[in-house]
Design brief:
alpha/beta, 14 helices, four-stranded mixed β-sheet, Aspartate Aminotransferase, domain 1, 436 residues, seven-stranded mixed β-sheet, globular, Aspartate Aminotransferase, domain 2
Length: 436
């Protein structure tokens, strides 16, 4: 039996919240309209919601159409590395396909080995491994926030906002901080009641622009105001690391943004995952041991979730070995290939949001309404990218994102560059700003 709408002061309302039905329907329509362009692309575009039938290196087949894959986040090519692939079978015979205990009940020794090696790689006080970054954000942010204040950078990943929203629902206050506005951050921190716990959440390497925040400045401010700095470096771990130089712009070892900037973990928690550079379903926090032990009893994934599959645990451990032996050369190749694409973009006068030189390259269109046609142009020429449609990005940044990996061949880089050259002859792209 369907419940009747509730009437408040003679006004028919929806969901019993005192909102007139007509207003609720209007708000729902406006909400749905935000997603109209993305839904249209999802339903009709060959590069959205695609079924990939075959993979050969960084070439993929959709139906009978082969494309160079520039939408992958497997930055180091570990998904294709023979030694990593071969590591799986031995551990499957030891542990089965999936050890289904929650971690509080029992962790396969593989977890201990991963956390020990990860802690050394990061130079962190300790580490805690959980299945995914999204699970970490939505479970750990509310625990760390408690009844305090959660400050979130305006360009932080949506999953960070989701974790902060859950924290707000549990009693924390939520504050939005303008990106790269250090005075705004300090203004909010100064306004908080004395003694109230506070944390500030930001991205490391941004998943759309490929750029990094000024981590040392944010770390200094957070330490000054006794705020925990919570950094999601999903796209930086494995790609950037310690001791960057002009010859090695990405740094060494791939041990993430904290070491890239030569920072310490004081008042800082680093979150990242193995699903990008290490091509494995696993994620982690770098954190103090006392905080780790608290999360073991307070964060739902450790208490209740099943662990990652055995194959993911095995490939992480094998990935550590490959990273030690080959990682820096793979990063050098990744840097070289990314710079070849960025150089062509510069030669063509195209605007990119990427100012870091890292392998995430977003290219905004001159006219956002061209996104369907531009995507089909790329697809027809064998180039597979990530379409960046509204509301995934602001309307002024609608375009597409190229993600370079070490496994992309030089011939594929050349095919991409030739296609970009043809693209600017046919479509209006945003132009780079020249400084006279």
């Amino acid at each position: 039996m369907t419940a009747s709408p509730i009437s408040v002061l003679g006004t028919e309302t929806a969901n019993g919240h005192g909102v007139p039905v007509e207003q609720a329907h209007s708000e729902q329509a406006r909400h749905d309209e935000r997603w109209a362009d993305l839904e249209r692309l999802r339903a009709s575009h060959p590069m959205m919601d695609a079924v990939i039938d075959e993979v050969r290196g960084r070439r993929i087949r959709i139906g009978d159409h082969w494309l160079c894959d520039f939408a992958s986040c497997n930055y180091l090519g570990f998904d294709l590395h023979p030694a990593i692939i071969e590591s799986v079978e031995r551990e499957l015979w030891r542990w089965g396909t999936h050890p289904s205990w929650s971690r509080l009940l029992g962790s396969p020794r593989l977890y201990v080995e991963i956390e020990d090696q990860l802690t050394e790689l990061l130079g962190a006080p300790d580490s805690l491994v959980l299945p995914t970054i999204t699970i970490i954000h939505t479970s750990v942010i509310p625990v760390l926030a408690g009844q305090g204040a959660v400050l979130v950078d305006a360009q932080a990943h949506k999953t960070i906002y989701e974790g902060a929203a859950i924290a707000r629902g549990a009693g924390a206050t939520l504050h939005r901080v303008r990106t790269n506005d250090y005075e705004h951050l300090e203004e909010i921190l100064r306004s908080l009641p004395a003694g109230q716990s506070r944390m500030f959440c930001i991205d490391g390497v941004n998943s759309m622009t490929g750029n990094v925040p000024d981590l040392p400045t944010y770390a200094r401010i957070c330490r000054e105001y006794d705020a925990l700095l919570y950094v999601d470096d999903a796209h930086g771990f494995g790609v950037i690391g310690e001791s960057p130089t002009a010859q090695r712009p990405y740094g060494l070892r791939g041990n993430s943004i904290v070491r890239y900037f030569g920072e310490s973990y004081d008042n800082m928690v680093l979150v990242a995952g193995f699903s990008k550079s290490y091509s494995s379903l696993l994620a982690f926090l770098a954190l103090p041991t006392s905080m780790k032990n608290h999360l073991k009893v307070a964060a739902a994934p450790y208490l209740y979730s099943g662990p990652s599959p055995t194959a993911s645990l095995a490939t992480v451990l094998a990935g550590f070995k490959v990273n030690d032996a080959e990682g820096d050369e793979l990063r050098a190749a990744l840097c070289r290939k990314s710079h070849r694409v960025l150089e062509r973009i510069s030669e063509l006068g195209m605007r990119t949001l990427n100012s870091s030189g890292f392998p995430i390259i977003e290219l905004p269109l001159g006219d956002g309404d061209d996104i369907d046609a531009v995507g089909r142009f790329l697809y027809d020429r064998g180039i597979y990218v990530t379409l960046a449609a509204y509301p995934l990005v602001p309307k002024s940044q609608v375009g597409f994102r190229v993600q370079v990996t070490a496994a992309n061949g030089d011939d594929e880089i050349e095919q991409l560059n030739d296609t970009l050259s043809a693209l600017v002859e046919r479509f209006e792209m945003q132009r780079a700003v020249t400084v006279s």
